[in-house]
Write a structure and sequence with these properties.
The protein has about 425 residues and is α/β, with parallel strands linked by helices. The protein contains 19 helices and 14 strands. It folds into two domains: about 210 residues, 3-Layer(aba) Sandwich (Rossmann fold), CATH 3.40.50.11720; about 180 residues, Glycogen Phosphorylase B (Rossmann fold, 3-Layer(aba) Sandwich), CATH 3.40.50.2000. Helix 5 links the parallel strand 2 and strand 3.
Length: about 425
Protein backbone atom coordinates (compact mmCIF):
# COMPACT_ATOMS: atom_id res chain seq x y z
CA UNK A 1 0.00 0.00 0.00
CA UNK A 2 2.87 2.35 0.72
CA UNK A 3 4.11 1.91 -2.85
CA UNK A 4 0.66 2.83 -4.21
CA UNK A 5 0.62 5.92 -1.98
CA UNK A 6 4.03 6.99 -3.28
CA UNK A 7 2.90 6.47 -6.86
CA UNK A 8 -0.24 8.51 -6.18
CA UNK A 9 1.75 11.46 -4.82
CA UNK A 10 4.18 11.25 -7.75
CA UNK A 11 1.38 11.19 -10.34
CA UNK A 12 -0.33 14.11 -8.62
CA UNK A 13 2.86 16.17 -8.85
CA UNK A 14 3.21 15.38 -12.55
CA UNK A 15 -0.40 16.27 -13.33
CA UNK A 16 -0.18 19.60 -11.48
CA UNK A 17 2.97 20.53 -13.39
CA UNK A 18 1.39 19.60 -16.71
CA UNK A 19 -1.68 21.77 -16.16
CA UNK A 20 0.15 24.67 -14.45
CA UNK A 21 0.71 26.65 -17.70
CA UNK A 22 -3.05 26.68 -18.24
CA UNK A 23 -4.40 26.93 -14.68
CA UNK A 24 -3.57 29.76 -12.28
CA UNK A 25 -4.05 27.75 -9.07
CA UNK A 26 -1.90 24.91 -10.40
CA UNK A 27 0.76 27.44 -11.37
CA UNK A 28 0.71 28.94 -7.86
CA UNK A 29 0.87 25.43 -6.39
CA UNK A 30 4.05 24.65 -8.38
CA UNK A 31 5.79 28.04 -8.18
CA UNK A 32 5.07 28.37 -4.46
CA UNK A 33 6.99 25.18 -3.72
CA UNK A 34 10.11 25.98 -5.75
CA UNK A 35 13.29 26.13 -3.66
CA UNK A 36 11.22 25.64 -0.53
CA UNK A 37 14.16 24.36 1.52
CA UNK A 38 16.22 27.51 0.99
CA UNK A 39 13.19 29.74 1.57
CA UNK A 40 12.32 27.94 4.80
CA UNK A 41 15.88 27.98 6.13
CA UNK A 42 16.03 31.73 5.53
CA UNK A 43 12.90 32.27 7.62
CA UNK A 44 13.74 30.07 10.59
CA UNK A 45 15.33 31.80 13.58
CA UNK A 46 17.99 30.03 15.62
CA UNK A 47 17.39 29.12 19.26
CA UNK A 48 13.65 29.59 18.89
CA UNK A 49 10.87 27.11 19.70
CA UNK A 50 8.28 26.72 16.95
CA UNK A 51 4.74 25.41 16.99
CA UNK A 52 3.65 24.30 13.54
CA UNK A 53 0.08 24.62 12.24
CA UNK A 54 -0.92 23.03 8.95
CA UNK A 55 -4.13 23.91 7.10
CA UNK A 56 -5.40 22.54 3.81
CA UNK A 57 -6.98 25.80 2.71
CA UNK A 58 -8.53 29.07 3.82
CA UNK A 59 -11.46 27.44 5.60
CA UNK A 60 -9.17 25.30 7.73
CA UNK A 61 -7.07 28.37 8.50
CA UNK A 62 -10.12 30.01 10.08
CA UNK A 63 -10.45 26.94 12.31
CA UNK A 64 -6.80 27.00 13.33
CA UNK A 65 -6.60 30.76 13.78
CA UNK A 66 -8.20 31.01 17.26
CA UNK A 67 -5.76 28.44 18.64
CA UNK A 68 -2.76 30.12 17.00
CA UNK A 69 -3.72 33.49 18.39
CA UNK A 70 -4.40 32.15 21.87
CA UNK A 71 -1.00 30.44 21.95
CA UNK A 72 0.66 33.70 20.89
CA UNK A 73 -1.17 35.46 23.70
CA UNK A 74 -0.61 32.85 26.41
CA UNK A 75 2.87 31.67 25.37
CA UNK A 76 4.75 34.49 23.60
CA UNK A 77 7.99 32.50 23.86
CA UNK A 78 6.77 30.32 20.97
CA UNK A 79 6.96 31.26 17.29
CA UNK A 80 4.25 30.06 14.90
CA UNK A 81 4.99 28.28 11.62
CA UNK A 82 1.96 28.07 9.34
CA UNK A 83 1.66 25.95 6.20
CA UNK A 84 -1.00 25.58 3.54
CA UNK A 85 -1.56 22.86 0.97
CA UNK A 86 -3.80 24.91 -1.31
CA UNK A 87 -3.16 28.26 -3.00
CA UNK A 88 -6.66 29.32 -1.90
CA UNK A 89 -5.31 29.55 1.64
CA UNK A 90 -1.71 30.58 1.10
CA UNK A 91 -2.31 33.36 -1.42
CA UNK A 92 -4.93 35.01 0.78
CA UNK A 93 -3.10 34.63 4.11
CA UNK A 94 0.58 34.79 3.13
CA UNK A 95 0.87 38.12 4.96
CA UNK A 96 -1.04 37.06 8.08
CA UNK A 97 0.72 38.73 11.00
CA UNK A 98 -0.25 36.07 13.53
CA UNK A 99 2.37 33.64 12.16
CA UNK A 100 6.15 34.06 12.05
CA UNK A 101 6.69 31.68 9.10
CA UNK A 102 4.14 31.11 6.33
CA UNK A 103 4.82 28.54 3.65
CA UNK A 104 3.32 26.01 1.29
CA UNK A 105 3.55 22.43 2.57
CA UNK A 106 5.95 20.48 0.34
CA UNK A 107 4.41 17.37 -1.20
CA UNK A 108 4.22 14.38 1.11
CA UNK A 109 7.34 12.38 0.35
CA UNK A 110 9.69 10.78 2.84
CA UNK A 111 12.59 13.12 2.02
CA UNK A 112 10.41 16.25 2.02
CA UNK A 113 8.86 15.37 5.36
CA UNK A 114 12.21 14.68 7.01
CA UNK A 115 13.81 17.84 5.61
CA UNK A 116 10.87 20.10 6.49
CA UNK A 117 10.65 18.85 10.07
CA UNK A 118 14.44 19.00 10.54
CA UNK A 119 14.44 22.65 9.44
CA UNK A 120 11.49 23.80 11.57
CA UNK A 121 12.16 21.50 14.53
CA UNK A 122 8.65 22.08 15.90
CA UNK A 123 7.94 21.43 19.55
CA UNK A 124 4.27 20.73 18.91
CA UNK A 125 2.24 20.32 15.71
CA UNK A 126 -1.41 20.96 14.92
CA UNK A 127 -3.13 19.65 11.79
CA UNK A 128 -6.55 21.10 11.08
CA UNK A 129 -9.70 19.03 10.47
CA UNK A 130 -8.91 16.63 7.60
CA UNK A 131 -5.15 16.54 7.03
CA UNK A 132 -3.63 13.03 7.07
CA UNK A 133 -0.28 13.06 5.25
CA UNK A 134 1.42 9.72 5.78
CA UNK A 135 5.11 10.68 5.67
CA UNK A 136 4.74 13.85 7.73
CA UNK A 137 2.75 12.00 10.37
CA UNK A 138 5.25 9.12 10.41
CA UNK A 139 8.28 11.43 10.69
CA UNK A 140 6.73 13.40 13.55
CA UNK A 141 6.05 10.16 15.40
CA UNK A 142 9.59 8.94 14.72
CA UNK A 143 11.03 12.16 16.15
CA UNK A 144 8.62 12.00 19.13
CA UNK A 145 7.05 15.36 18.30
CA UNK A 146 3.41 15.46 19.53
CA UNK A 147 0.85 15.86 16.74
CA UNK A 148 -2.68 17.06 17.43
CA UNK A 149 -5.65 17.37 15.11
CA UNK A 150 -8.25 20.02 15.91
CA UNK A 151 -11.85 20.58 14.80
CA UNK A 152 -11.78 17.11 13.26
CA UNK A 153 -14.85 15.36 11.90
CA UNK A 154 -14.94 11.65 11.11
CA UNK A 155 -17.62 9.84 9.13
CA UNK A 156 -18.40 6.14 8.87
CA UNK A 157 -17.74 6.07 5.12
CA UNK A 158 -14.14 7.28 5.47
CA UNK A 159 -11.38 4.82 4.61
CA UNK A 160 -10.17 4.60 8.22
CA UNK A 161 -13.29 2.67 9.21
CA UNK A 162 -13.41 0.21 6.32
CA UNK A 163 -11.99 -3.31 6.56
CA UNK A 164 -10.28 -3.06 3.20
CA UNK A 165 -6.54 -3.41 2.67
CA UNK A 166 -6.30 0.32 1.96
CA UNK A 167 -8.51 1.17 4.95
CA UNK A 168 -6.48 -0.90 7.40
CA UNK A 169 -3.21 0.57 6.13
CA UNK A 170 -4.45 4.17 6.25
CA UNK A 171 -6.00 3.61 9.69
CA UNK A 172 -2.56 3.05 11.16
CA UNK A 173 -1.73 6.73 10.65
CA UNK A 174 -4.37 7.64 13.24
CA UNK A 175 -2.48 5.78 15.96
CA UNK A 176 0.44 8.19 15.50
CA UNK A 177 -1.51 11.23 16.71
CA UNK A 178 -1.00 12.47 20.25
CA UNK A 179 -4.62 13.58 20.66
CA UNK A 180 -7.80 14.11 18.67
CA UNK A 181 -9.95 17.20 19.27
CA UNK A 182 -13.17 16.33 17.46
CA UNK A 183 -16.31 18.31 16.74
CA UNK A 184 -18.94 15.80 17.82
CA UNK A 185 -19.74 12.58 19.68
CA UNK A 186 -20.20 10.66 16.43
CA UNK A 187 -16.55 11.26 15.55
CA UNK A 188 -15.45 10.20 19.02
CA UNK A 189 -17.46 6.96 18.83
CA UNK A 190 -15.97 6.10 15.43
CA UNK A 191 -12.43 6.57 16.73
CA UNK A 192 -13.19 4.50 19.82
CA UNK A 193 -14.60 1.73 17.61
CA UNK A 194 -11.12 1.16 16.15
CA UNK A 195 -9.34 1.29 19.52
CA UNK A 196 -8.46 4.96 19.96
CA UNK A 197 -9.20 6.70 23.25
CA UNK A 198 -7.01 9.82 23.17
CA UNK A 199 -10.01 11.95 22.24
CA UNK A 200 -11.70 15.16 23.42
CA UNK A 201 -15.06 16.33 22.08
CA UNK A 202 -14.14 20.01 21.95
CA UNK A 203 -16.42 21.30 19.19
CA UNK A 204 -15.50 23.58 16.30
CA UNK A 205 -12.95 26.35 16.84
CA UNK A 206 -14.68 28.43 14.15
CA UNK A 207 -17.27 29.43 16.75
CA UNK A 208 -14.51 31.11 18.74
CA UNK A 209 -13.31 32.83 15.59
CA UNK A 210 -16.70 34.22 14.59
CA UNK A 211 -17.38 35.35 18.15
CA UNK A 212 -14.22 37.46 17.86
CA UNK A 213 -15.39 38.80 14.49
CA UNK A 214 -18.35 40.46 16.19
CA UNK A 215 -16.04 42.29 18.57
CA UNK A 216 -13.65 43.30 15.78
CA UNK A 217 -16.22 44.23 13.12
CA UNK A 218 -15.35 47.52 11.46
CA UNK A 219 -17.97 50.16 10.84
CA UNK A 220 -18.51 50.86 7.13
CA UNK A 221 -20.22 54.26 6.86
CA UNK A 222 -20.97 53.89 3.15
CA UNK A 223 -22.94 50.69 3.86
CA UNK A 224 -24.88 52.44 6.62
CA UNK A 225 -25.87 55.12 4.10
CA UNK A 226 -26.69 52.48 1.50
CA UNK A 227 -29.00 50.59 3.86
CA UNK A 228 -30.76 53.79 4.90
CA UNK A 229 -32.85 51.97 7.54
CA UNK A 230 -34.39 49.61 4.97
CA UNK A 231 -34.42 45.82 5.00
CA UNK A 232 -31.08 44.48 3.74
CA UNK A 233 -30.33 41.02 2.37
CA UNK A 234 -26.65 40.12 2.16
CA UNK A 235 -25.54 37.42 -0.26
CA UNK A 236 -22.04 36.22 0.63
CA UNK A 237 -19.55 34.06 -1.27
CA UNK A 238 -21.95 33.47 -4.15
CA UNK A 239 -21.30 31.50 -7.31
CA UNK A 240 -23.06 31.74 -10.67
CA UNK A 241 -26.01 29.41 -9.81
CA UNK A 242 -26.62 31.38 -6.59
CA UNK A 243 -26.39 34.71 -8.38
CA UNK A 244 -28.84 33.69 -11.09
CA UNK A 245 -31.47 32.75 -8.49
CA UNK A 246 -30.88 35.86 -6.44
CA UNK A 247 -30.92 38.24 -9.38
CA UNK A 248 -34.21 36.81 -10.61
CA UNK A 249 -35.63 37.62 -7.17
CA UNK A 250 -33.98 41.06 -6.99
CA UNK A 251 -35.30 42.09 -10.40
CA UNK A 252 -38.90 41.56 -9.28
CA UNK A 253 -38.56 42.93 -5.73
CA UNK A 254 -38.87 46.60 -4.77
CA UNK A 255 -38.20 48.21 -1.36
CA UNK A 256 -35.44 45.83 -0.23
CA UNK A 257 -31.74 46.55 -0.39
CA UNK A 258 -29.28 43.85 -1.48
CA UNK A 259 -25.54 43.40 -1.11
CA UNK A 260 -23.92 40.76 -3.32
CA UNK A 261 -20.40 39.69 -2.35
CA UNK A 262 -19.45 37.11 -5.02
CA UNK A 263 -16.77 34.50 -4.42
CA UNK A 264 -15.19 35.48 -7.73
CA UNK A 265 -14.42 39.21 -7.88
CA UNK A 266 -12.84 39.38 -11.33
CA UNK A 267 -13.95 42.22 -13.62
CA UNK A 268 -15.56 39.69 -15.94
CA UNK A 269 -17.76 38.25 -13.20
CA UNK A 270 -18.66 41.63 -11.70
CA UNK A 271 -19.68 42.90 -15.14
CA UNK A 272 -21.77 39.77 -15.71
CA UNK A 273 -23.71 40.44 -12.51
CA UNK A 274 -24.28 44.08 -13.45
CA UNK A 275 -25.61 43.07 -16.86
CA UNK A 276 -28.15 40.67 -15.33
CA UNK A 277 -29.51 43.23 -12.87
CA UNK A 278 -32.43 45.43 -13.85
CA UNK A 279 -32.37 47.39 -10.59
CA UNK A 280 -30.04 50.37 -9.84
CA UNK A 281 -26.71 48.76 -8.87
CA UNK A 282 -23.20 49.97 -8.15
CA UNK A 283 -19.85 48.32 -7.40
CA UNK A 284 -18.25 49.09 -4.05
CA UNK A 285 -15.10 50.40 -5.73
CA UNK A 286 -17.15 52.99 -7.63
CA UNK A 287 -19.32 54.19 -4.76
CA UNK A 288 -20.27 57.85 -4.56
CA UNK A 289 -21.32 58.37 -0.92
CA UNK A 290 -23.65 61.24 -1.73
CA UNK A 291 -25.71 59.07 -4.10
CA UNK A 292 -25.35 55.63 -2.52
CA UNK A 293 -28.80 55.54 -0.92
CA UNK A 294 -30.38 55.79 -4.40
CA UNK A 295 -29.12 52.33 -5.36
CA UNK A 296 -30.91 49.09 -4.57
CA UNK A 297 -27.95 46.75 -5.08
CA UNK A 298 -24.36 47.10 -3.88
CA UNK A 299 -21.86 44.66 -5.44
CA UNK A 300 -18.70 44.01 -3.46
CA UNK A 301 -15.82 43.80 -5.94
CA UNK A 302 -13.02 43.33 -3.40
CA UNK A 303 -12.14 40.84 -0.66
CA UNK A 304 -11.88 41.26 3.10
CA UNK A 305 -15.16 43.11 3.76
CA UNK A 306 -17.72 40.34 4.07
CA UNK A 307 -17.38 39.50 7.77
CA UNK A 308 -17.92 43.16 8.70
CA UNK A 309 -20.77 43.61 6.22
CA UNK A 310 -22.95 41.07 8.01
CA UNK A 311 -23.53 43.45 10.94
CA UNK A 312 -25.84 45.49 8.70
CA UNK A 313 -27.97 42.67 7.31
CA UNK A 314 -31.41 41.31 8.18
CA UNK A 315 -31.22 38.06 6.17
CA UNK A 316 -28.19 36.27 4.72
CA UNK A 317 -27.85 34.07 1.66
CA UNK A 318 -24.62 32.04 1.60
CA UNK A 319 -23.30 30.66 -1.69
CA UNK A 320 -21.85 27.30 -2.65
CA UNK A 321 -24.87 25.15 -1.95
CA UNK A 322 -25.45 24.45 -5.64
CA UNK A 323 -21.83 23.34 -6.01
CA UNK A 324 -19.52 21.26 -3.85
CA UNK A 325 -20.79 22.77 -0.59
CA UNK A 326 -21.74 25.93 1.23
CA UNK A 327 -19.29 28.58 2.38
CA UNK A 328 -19.00 29.92 5.93
CA UNK A 329 -22.48 30.45 7.40
CA UNK A 330 -21.30 31.12 10.95
CA UNK A 331 -20.04 34.62 10.17
CA UNK A 332 -23.61 35.62 9.31
CA UNK A 333 -25.21 33.62 12.11
CA UNK A 334 -23.07 35.23 14.78
CA UNK A 335 -24.63 38.59 13.92
CA UNK A 336 -28.08 37.11 14.44
CA UNK A 337 -29.16 36.62 10.84
CA UNK A 338 -31.37 33.88 9.43
CA UNK A 339 -29.28 32.07 6.83
CA UNK A 340 -30.45 30.67 3.47
CA UNK A 341 -28.39 28.38 1.21
CA UNK A 342 -28.63 25.75 -1.51
CA UNK A 343 -29.16 21.99 -1.15
CA UNK A 344 -25.56 20.76 -0.79
CA UNK A 345 -25.08 21.38 2.93
CA UNK A 346 -25.27 17.95 4.61
CA UNK A 347 -21.52 17.68 5.20
CA UNK A 348 -21.63 20.86 7.30
CA UNK A 349 -22.69 20.17 10.88
CA UNK A 350 -23.46 23.82 11.61
CA UNK A 351 -25.86 23.96 8.65
CA UNK A 352 -27.70 20.83 9.77
CA UNK A 353 -27.88 22.15 13.33
CA UNK A 354 -29.13 25.59 12.32
CA UNK A 355 -31.81 24.13 10.08
CA UNK A 356 -33.02 21.96 12.95
CA UNK A 357 -33.26 24.94 15.33
CA UNK A 358 -34.93 27.28 12.83
CA UNK A 359 -31.99 29.59 12.24
CA UNK A 360 -31.24 28.44 8.69
CA UNK A 361 -33.15 27.28 5.61
CA UNK A 362 -32.19 25.32 2.50
CA UNK A 363 -33.73 26.02 -0.90
CA UNK A 364 -33.50 24.11 -4.19
CA UNK A 365 -35.02 26.54 -6.70
CA UNK A 366 -36.13 30.12 -7.27
CA UNK A 367 -39.70 29.51 -6.08
CA UNK A 368 -38.44 28.24 -2.74
CA UNK A 369 -36.05 31.17 -2.44
CA UNK A 370 -38.83 33.70 -3.06
CA UNK A 371 -41.18 31.94 -0.63
CA UNK A 372 -38.59 31.73 2.13
CA UNK A 373 -37.42 35.34 1.92
CA UNK A 374 -40.97 36.66 1.69
CA UNK A 375 -42.00 34.60 4.71
CA UNK A 376 -39.14 36.02 6.76
CA UNK A 377 -39.50 39.66 5.79
CA UNK A 378 -43.30 39.75 5.95
CA UNK A 379 -43.52 38.31 9.46
CA UNK A 380 -41.60 40.39 11.98
CA UNK A 381 -42.02 37.78 14.72
CA UNK A 382 -40.73 34.96 12.50
CA UNK A 383 -37.71 37.02 11.47
CA UNK A 384 -36.91 37.87 15.08
CA UNK A 385 -37.15 34.25 16.24
CA UNK A 386 -34.96 32.94 13.40
CA UNK A 387 -32.42 35.69 14.04
CA UNK A 388 -32.25 34.85 17.75
CA UNK A 389 -31.92 31.14 16.99
CA UNK A 390 -28.85 31.84 14.84
CA UNK A 391 -27.20 34.04 17.42
CA UNK A 392 -27.92 31.67 20.31
CA UNK A 393 -26.47 28.74 18.38
CA UNK A 394 -23.10 30.45 17.97
CA UNK A 395 -22.99 31.69 21.56
CA UNK A 396 -23.77 28.19 22.88
CA UNK A 397 -20.89 26.63 20.96
CA UNK A 398 -17.96 28.90 21.80
CA UNK A 399 -15.15 27.53 23.98
CA UNK A 400 -13.34 24.95 21.82
CA UNK A 401 -10.05 26.87 21.94
CA UNK A 402 -10.10 26.88 25.73
CA UNK A 403 -10.47 23.08 25.84
CA UNK A 404 -7.59 22.57 23.38
CA UNK A 405 -5.17 24.93 25.10
CA UNK A 406 -5.81 23.43 28.53
CA UNK A 407 -5.31 19.87 27.30
CA UNK A 408 -2.22 20.47 25.15
CA UNK A 409 -0.36 22.56 27.71
CA UNK A 410 -1.47 20.52 30.74
CA UNK A 411 -2.61 23.48 32.79
CA UNK A 412 -6.17 23.68 34.09
CA UNK A 413 -5.69 27.29 35.14
CA UNK A 414 -5.26 28.62 31.62
CA UNK A 415 -7.85 31.02 30.25
CA UNK A 416 -10.05 30.95 33.37
Amino acid sequence: MLLLYKIGIFLYSIIVRLVSPFNEKARQFVVGRKSWRISLQNQVEKDVSYIWFHCASLGAFEQGRPVMEEIKKQFPEYKIALTFFSPSGYEVRKNYDGADIISYLPLDTKSNARAFIDIIKPEKVFFIKYEFWYFYISELKKQKIPLYIISAIFRENQQFFKNTVWGKWYRETLFKFEHFFVQNETSAKLLKSIGLNNISVSGDTRFDRVAEIVKAAKKIPVVEKFKNNELLIIAGSTWKPDEELLIEFINQTPNIKFIIAPHEVSDVNINRIHQLLKKPAISYSKVDETEISNYQVLIIDSIGLLSSLYQYGNVAYIGGGFGVGIHNILEAATFGMPVIFGPNYLKFKEAVDLISNGGAFSITNSNELVARINRLISDEKSLKISSQNSKNYVEKNVGSTKIIIKKVFNNDNLLD
